[in-house]
Amino acid sequence: MNIKQLSYFCQIVESGSASAAAKQLFIAPTAISMQLAALEQELGGELLNRSSRPMSLTKLGNFFYPRAQQLLYDFHKLQSETRSFITRADTVLNIAFPRSIMVNLLPKAIKSFTENNSHITLNLTEVLSEYQPEMIQNQTIDIGITREFEGDCIVPDNLNHHLILIDPLFAAIPREHYLTKKKFLTLHDFCHSPFISYPKDDRSGFAQKILDYFTAHQCMPIISHRAIEIHTALALVGAGLGVTLIGKSAIPDNRQDILFIPIEDFKVNSYIYAISNPDNSGTHIDAFIEVLKRVVA
Fold first, then answer.
1. Phi/psi at 237 (5° precision)
2. Is the dihedral of CA 157, 161, 165, 169 positive or negative?
3. DSSP letters along 41-99, please?
4. Looking at the chain, which terminus has fewer C-beta neighbours within 10 angstroms, N or C?
5. What are the pLDDT digits (tens) for 260-291?
6. Which CATH architecture has domain 98-291?
7. Per CATH, which fold does 3-89 belong to?
8. In a 10 Å sphere around its CB, with 0-12 CB exposed, 13-18 middle and 19+ buried, how is residue 113 labelled?
9. Closest CA to 272 of 199, 159, 164
10. What pTM value is reported for the model?
């Protein structure tokens, strides 16, 4: 039993005869009769009363016909959905990113990419770096944009790992803070001000990494707030509730209530990578990663 036999049988039922079905299908009547006979032989019984005009269903035919219709429906639906998936996969790019990347880097890359690839739909998902490798491996996303520190092992070796930018950390200080008079800060300056830690997530290592660097320099600030994400942390800084650290690329242009100052004795960089699955590589994935590299050059 095959799809062709089921299709011919259903067409005969709907048309009323093999000759009428043959005309609908643009095939010879003998061909459709042969397929029907082969199907009945395999099933072990007749599906149609050939003596009646139009042909009527036998008891076996009444049982078999609706089930054959359902199978044909499911088959054609599978064909259609598969074609749509292939087309969609070729015209959709799924990208994940931490919120800090959306401040400056990602909007520039999106604008540049879409100027030459207007037929590609970009699906953007905001998610912390630590969650992205799993999403890459199960093909939920095509590209992940991560922020990591030197020595971090967020991304497994079996994934592509493209360095986009080395991003130094800056201090974010309230505009009216006494430290804004200084051109450079030191780590010990942080020991005298409430510190705002972020992101508040069990899987994120960013906040703990910052505190580890303070500990290594024998200077531990007092944490006043633990913000869920970077914009909340900056809002708290702007409200005068503390200071924090931020990658240079994530410094917003529209914050008049915050001053961003380099740190003299804290030469710690964050690293922005684009990650992808070697098994899911494609022209659009490679093109977008190249755009990311170009906009920061």
1. -65, -45
2. negative
3. HHHTS-SEETTSSS-EE-HHHHHHHHHHHHHHHHHHHHHHHHHHHHHHHHHEEEEEE-G
4. C
5. 998 887 677 889 999 999 887 667 899 999 99
6. 3-Layer(aba) Sandwich (3.40)
7. Arc Repressor Mutant, subunit A (1.10.10)
8. buried
9. 164
10. 0.66
